[in-house]
Structures are given as structure tokens and as C-alpha cells.
Amino acid sequence: MLTKRIIPCLDIKNGRTVKGVSFVNLQDAGDPVELAARYSGEGADELCLLDITATLEGRSTFIKVVEEVASAVSIPFTVGGGISSENQVEVLLSRGADKVSVNTSAVKDPDLITRLSKAFGNQCVVVAIDARFTEGKWQVVSHAGTRATGIAAEEWAKEVCDRGAGEILLTSFTADGSRKGFSLDITSQISNLLPIPVIASGGAGKPAHFYDVFTEGGADAALAAGIFHYGLVSIEEVKSYLDKKGIAVRFQG
Amino acid sequence: MKQNIKIVRYGAGNIASVVNALSRLGIDAGLAACPADLEKADKLIFPGVGHAKPAMESLKLTGLDRALKEFSRPVLGICLGMQLMASSSEEGNMKGLGLFNVTIKRFSGKEKVPHMGWNSIRGLNGPLFERLSEESHVYFVHSYYMPRTDFTAACCSYGVEFSAAAWRDNFFGVQFHPEKSGYTGEKILENFINL
Asked: Which residues of chain B have pLDDT under 70?
């Protein structure tokens, strides 16, 4: 049986993992390669590495991190942050990344999704959708949540799917950092609407939240950063909890 | 024993993960881009992601299609590599290498496509799965699958029962990614190396 995936996310700035809420008040959380190896050993099903550096120098440091993570871990990982061209994707995939995620650049240039999917196959194109509940509906926000786009989240999700996204990483900026649970309504709406897998993100605080997002939320995978980095809950604890509640998860063979 | 393991490079997808996985096992694998590169190889790994049709065309262009079919030592096709070993595929009406007499089909049930993530395999048969237990989890990413055949060496279910692995003589194919399947995948690659 296909298992539900637990994906820790590492925000990387200038070659270091950082932690904070919605990119504010960042603190050092250690060496990304060590952290990636540790999470992999603890049963992470995939990893997500997000480059939050804005400088050119930071970008080349990030590529080095990607290369080192690829040689250290034997599970798949997605890389994202500031990706806006086929060339960047080519470089990241050739250094060992399995998938790339595009976000703001896809909102600005939706055709990017089509081009990437054609060039590299939809299996490696993850479209990250950041959504916030405002004025009675879920809207897409861009630029790390700082700009409202006025686009309805469901409509955008449908479009990215039609354009060849292989997977959607749906982050609720309404729930992000709250530790009160994932936004189940929008997750389930999008997951039920689309024929591609949906990774839920934002709001994880305890194992029960993962159970909720896999059942009521209909998510195929769940991503979390803070709770794992701060050691509030371990991946093993989340998986044991899910296993006891009858959700199919993978334990290391 | 120092082995000469070569990874077939034919422009279909990225081989960095396979190189890395072998290097974690202490194997420094070379690349094979034309038939002459295959001559000294003890074993071949035949990876692939992307679309079947251009991949097959690119194999033909270099003559690697014939060289692969005639290769007499162990070959391991991974993901699209396995699918190209079939006689044909619904993807772009591709005509494959014909090593496994079966047609690759597209998932058409209510399940989400691609089949992406960790799924369990069973009915494990043959030397690739030595020391592995039934229901081990491995990592899959694919939209097309090889139906069950006489050559099926492991099964997986995702709406339908399909071949997670196939085996005939010196030819092995796995639909999943052993290079991305943690310890389980490592053992499978090790078993292949130890053949």
C-alpha cells in the first residue's frame, strides 16, 4: 500500500539551516547536510530544501549544499527557492536533486510550469502554492506570503495541474507557525479536486495534526519544519502515532 | 574483486543519484554513452526518467539499443530503463527493446498519477531480493507500469497489481528507484553488484 509521506523542510540561508516563522526571526539550526542525514536516519520519507538566500553568492553555496545532501542521503529530495528558469533546474537536477519546486516565479510566469514539465518530466515539477484565508476565501499569496495575488487558490491549483505540475506543495499561511494543525478545508478541497498528489504544509504541532491532514485533509504527504527542528516531536513519534491509528506509513527496513 | 560497472547515459534523465548511490557502496561507476563503452563492462545500470519515445530514439541513434539487447552480463534497468526493456509502451506508442514480452500501460484507475512515494513490494523472487523481507518499502515515481508477466520478480499494487521488478536471464528491471529507497534500495543495489 502506498504510504503517507512525512517530509521535513530545511530552510537554507548562506549554507546553514535556519528556523523561524514565515521567514522572520531566523535562528541558526545547524549544518543542512548533517540535518538531512539525521532526518533520513529517523525515517523521513523525503526532504525539502528551500533556498531563502537572495544573493548570487548564496545561490552558489546552496548548489554546493544540494550536491552534498545528494551524496549523503539515499531518499528523494526537492529543492526550491528562487527558481525561475530551465537552466537553474538543469543545474539542480544534475547535482542530484530529484524534484524542484517553483512558487512566485510560476505565479508571475505560469508558462514556466509547462516548460519545465516538458523539459524534465512532470515527476520532478512541484508547484508550491502559498495560500491565505482572507475576505472569506483562500487566496494565493506570493513573495514568501508578503503579496496578495487576488487569485483563488483552487483555480490556481487546477491551472498548475493542467500545465503539468507533478505534485502540489500547499502551504497555508493562515496556519503556518501556529502549531494548531494544518488547514484541512483547503487541503481537502484541492486534494479532492486534482488527480495529482498534494503535500500539505503549515501548522503542524503534534502527531494528531498529521492524522487529521491525511484523513480529513486528504493529503498524500505532509511537510513540517519547526516541530522537527525544535525537537518538539520526532518523525518516529509521528509515524508510530499514525501507524497505531491505521494510517499506512513506512518504517525503515 | 574490482568490478567495472557502467551506467548507460543516453540523455534520458539524470544519473547523479545512481552515481551517488553506487559511490556510497564504494563503487566508482563509469558512464557508457556508446556501444564500445559497453565492451569492458561487467555490469550495466540502465536508468531513465522522462518520456519513453525520445528516450528510445536516443538509444537507437547511438546503437545502444542493439548493444544492450546483446549484452550478456547483468543489466539493471531502473524506472523508465525497465520500461524500455519491454516490447512496447502505450507512452507515445514506443517500440522497446523487447527483452520482456509485455506492453507498458498507463495507470487509468481512480488513483492519483504519478504513483509517487513509498509503496510495499511482495512476491519477491530472484537474486536482487536476497536478504529482503516481503512488504519492504521502496520509492516509486511513475505514470506508466509494466503489467504482471511470467517475468515478474516483485509485485506492487496501486489500483492494479503491477510488476515492481522483472527478471529474465541476465536482465533485471525495477520500476522503483533503488538509488532513492534508503537501506532497502541499498541492499538491492548491493545484491546486483554481488551477482
From this structure: 1, 13
Average of per-residue pLDDT values in chain A:
93
CA terminus-to-terminus distance, chain B: 12
The residue of chain B with its CA nearest to that of A2 is B119
**A169 located within any domain:** yes
Residue B111: which domain range? Answer: 5-193
pLDDT band at A21 (very low <50, low <70, confident <90, very high): low
* Closest residue, chain B, to A95 (C-alpha): B16
Domain that holds residue A56: 5-244
ipTM value: 0.94
Pairing of strands A16-21, B100-106: unpaired
Tell me how close the Cα of A4 comes to any Cα of chain B, in angstroms: 8
State the best of A42, A74, A99, A188 to mutate against chain B, taking most chain B CBs within 10 Å: A74
Tell me the three state secondary structure of residue A118: helix
Reported as a single tens digit per residue, the pLDDT across A201-214 is: 999 999 999 999 99
Which of B51, B184, B186 lies nearest to residue A121, judging by beta carbons?
A: B51
Q: Sign (positive/negative) of CA torsion B138, A232, A167, A108?
A: negative
In this predicted structure, what is the pLDDT of residue B72? 97
DSSP assignment, residue A97?
-
Q: What's the total number of domains in chain B?
A: 1
Check: CB of residue B184 under 8 Å from CB of residue B132.
yes
Look at the block and give the residue holding cell 529507497: B181
Chain B residues inside the 8 Å CB shell of A192 = none
Measure A25 CA to nearest chain B CA, in Å.
33
CA distance A202 to A250: 22
